[in-house]
Amino acid sequence: MRLALLLAVAWALAGCHRATQVSVANQSGVALEQVVLTGAGFERPLGTIAAGASVATLVHPRGESGLALSFRAEGRPVLLPPSGYVEGGGRYRVRVVVDPTLRADVDAQLAAD
Question: Pick from 26, 24, 36: which is nearest to 78 by CA?
Fold first, then answer.
């Protein structure tokens, strides 16, 4: 009985540690500085993303979460509210695109197993 319980807990924890892949593409035409991606249970600094470049990272959302993005563009602070939808367990692939108006489009898709 103890072994079955330990195996069940280990299996559950293994699923919780899978990461969600997020890419942030900068199509704004200017460099995005001090970029930080946040959501439920995580905060991921991404540094500077040059105009036309993209950065990929892994995050571990705790439960259901949107993704918020903050950065500086031409010295101006920009804080974009949470958008999109992901859950913990790494079942999503997310693409965030920052456009020339400094708004973001978040596309979250279930990953193929």
Answer: 36
